[in-house]
Amino acid sequence: MSDQGSETTVIRAGFIGLGDQGGGMASRMIECGIPTTLWARRDASLEPFRGGGAFFAASPAELGAGSDVVGICVVDDDGVEQVVLGENGVVSGMNAGSLLALHSTISLAMCRRVADAAAQRGVAVIDAPVSGGGFAAAEGKLTVLVGGEAVDFETARPVLETFGGHVTHLGPLGSGLLAKLVNNVLHCAHYALARDALAAGQQLGLDQDALGQVLSASSGNSFSLNTAVAVGGFDVLAAMVGPLLRKDLDIFDALTGERGVETGSLVAVADEALELFGYARDSAHP
């Protein structure tokens, strides 16, 4: 790993998960002057960062060894297990006193597994999922929902604030994930309502595209409606958001079921959206 300097007051960051949102997060960290080391399973994901001030590690473990704060923004439980807990994973290289931030929307069980493994090495863990998408990440305007010890939140805050416009500590470990799951299920339900509203308007004789533009500037507006209008409709949107929202709704539904939490119409309406997108609960989609 490249030498990142000897200044003990400078936070050295590592980051894995350079997708649309994660790539923007890493870019913001670099732009804000945080020495940042990257690793990716695909070399192509690293190409946009070549010559741009980033450092590069040969393995997740090497990245962990050279970082004070490591951010993980891969898709799901399996991805987190591979890059964090797997052979030569991040945790195996991290030093006592360093911190791991889980930005992925994963199950609470996986979050606890990571925390337990990290604790054996004296490494702190926070869950810090984000909301807002790639554009918000690139502009430093993500919402960051954090769970964990207050002292660990303060340690990570300088890094989180490079890409987060709203960075909030919600409580103990897992609190950020709980809030993110609630957000994503509500977001999913909004898709169903927006689609039903546009369909009803069309049946009443309105042009659906024009109606979408009008609603986006009216009191019936939502982030979900704006997204659908911006990408060209729900058919285009389905493949973009369906798999991830299916994953998150399944996690939320199982969790609320286990705890006996009443969700009213929330899960049913969100399920309607995913059925319309072709990602029904019993579908063959991942």
List key phrases describing it.
286 residues; disordered N terminus; single chain; N-(1-d-carboxylethyl)-l-norvaline Dehydrogenase, domain 2; six-stranded parallel beta sheet; 12 helices; Rossmann fold; three-stranded mixed beta sheet; 51% helix; alpha/beta; 9 strands; globular
Compact overview of the structure:
51% of the residues lie in helices and 13% in strands.
Provide the CATH topology of the largest domain.
Rossmann fold
Largest sheet: 6 strands, parallel
Structural class: alpha/beta
Number of helices: 12
Number of domains as seen in the coordinates: 2
- List the helices and strands in order: EHEEHEHHEHEEHEHEHHHHH
Distance between the termini: 36 Å
| Order of strands, widest sheet | 3-2-1-4-5-6
Family: Belongs to the HIBADH-related family.
Domain 3-hydroxyisobutyrate dehydrogenase-like NAD-binding: 174-264
Keywords: NAD, Oxidoreductase
Domain 6-phosphogluconate dehydrogenase NADP-binding: 14-171
Task: List strands and helices in order, with pairings.
Layout: E1 13-16, H1 20-31, E2 36-39, E3 55-56, H2 60-65, E4 69-72, H3 77-85, H4 90-93, E5 99-102, H5 108-119, E6 124-127, E7 130-131, H6 133-138, E8 142-147, H7 150-163, E9 164-171, H8 175-203, H9 208-215, H10 223-231, H11 234-259, H12 266-277
Characterization of this structure:
Residues 174-264 form the 3-hydroxyisobutyrate dehydrogenase-like NAD-binding domain. The active site is at 180. Residues 14-171 form the 6-phosphogluconate dehydrogenase NADP-binding domain. The chain is an alpha/beta fold. It has two domains: 13-172, Rossmann fold (3-Layer(aba) Sandwich); 177-277, N-(1-d-carboxylethyl)-l-norvaline Dehydrogenase, domain 2 (Orthogonal Bundle), CATH 1.10.1040. It has helices at 20-31, 60-65, 77-85, 90-93, 108-119, 133-138, 150-163, 175-203, 208-215, 223-231, 234-259, 266-277; strands at 13-16, 36-39, 55-56, 69-72, 99-102, 124-127, 130-131, 142-147, 164-171. The longest helix has 29 residues, at 175-203. The chain starts with 12 loop residues before the first strand and ends in a 9-residue tail after the last helix. Mean pLDDT is 94; it is low at 1-8.
